[in-house]
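tmp note - 17 kDa surface antigen
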Amino acid sequence: MNTPDKKRVQQALENIPDNKSLAWKNSKTKNQYEVTPINTSQTSETYCRDYLVKARIKGKYLTQTARACRFPDGKWHNE
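out:
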């Protein structure tokens, strides 16, 4: 993922409800991505989200789950 793709992931984590997806195609690399937040949890300090990433990179399909938490700087960081 390049910088524009990472910004899209941030956008999905910040704005997309659980079980809804944000999909895009990178116009430069031609790679395709779909990010789906699947669970949101809250502690006294922060929000965390589990999410699913589906990607098509150079013709190969990849699927990965991850967890990210929102830090005080407002950005989501993977655990």
